Amino acid sequence: DPQQALEYLAFASLLHRRIDLTDPSA
Amino acid sequence: SFLRTMGRSHGTKQVVIISKPGTEDEERRTVEAMIQSESGFFEVTTPIYEGDHVEIPDPRGGTDVRVASEVKVNDFGSSTLHHTQVKWGKAPARRVAPVRRLTFENLHPDVQKAAGDLFADGHMGSAVSEAFKSLEVRVRRLSRLDQSGSTLMSTAFNAKSPVIDVATEDGRSGQDEREGFMALFRGAMIGIR
Q1: ipTM
Q2: CB contact under 8 A, A12 and B131
């Protein structure tokens, strides 16, 4: 189900963005 | 009064007059009125002015908002005939918050890179799996830890001695953030990947 997959990807995206806050190379 | 006399046969409703709508001085006042499709009839003492909005219960559910485009105060003749007639203008455009949809293009670049082709080809499970793998690879690289999965996340985001500190606030709130995100990162490894 693409919508559900998108929601999981959004969760992964959220965690990546949180790391961006501390990652100087981001 | 007018409404007591006329309302008996025509029926009245509780409506809300919104004066100076949309401004900081906006005021709402519930009053009784006789509502018809083209006009509303109010007691002559009711403070209603051109430009005011009137919320009327909609028989289909919810409320209907109308604009007082013309206000005629009729205070001649017998006091039971005194009333204010308000002609309705065009309803104001509904203020609808812009909808921001969740789209692939709005996701983090690392997620797009890891999952883009698979997602486009309809391999949803693999797309999600690769996205979380990209997270694990990144955490391993940044933390320089030689661990994987939930163990890696527990060490990297350990609230007491974080290798990667994701807190944005100080003190107790920051500590809660660290613990919360550690649980989220661990959960992402345990439950999803």
Answers
A1: 0.94
A2: yes
